[in-house]
């Protein structure tokens, strides 16, 4: 099944929109993480992690899922295919990384931070949770930027498929 030009444009628009939401989520996470790290106000820190946890269970998961589904549909229903081009394969690998981090990681890390903030006796471990969250945010931002660049420049060309 191939899409009409109008259908392809609508699907591409949705794909870009959901990708932008994913990127916006991670920028918001970055700002909230910086804010939480830069203050001694426990209530403010807890509020930052509550917002991140809420986002990780709603818009982060929804935008990740929607971007993945629209990307797969674009690959299947257009000339690009799932495995015809190296740049698409790299995007797929990065997408799998983002799926794991967005579906599991962000929620788990923000939940761990909230649990440790509530249980004041183990507050010293929050630095480890913050570090995990920072690493996750940075990996996601870099991955998303790479995906955007690959989508625009489409490097490496078409794979040479071996035929028998």
TrEMBL record:
The chain crosses the membrane at residues 12-38, 58-78, 85-106, 126-153. This is DUF2269 family protein. Keywords: Membrane, Transmembrane, Transmembrane helix.
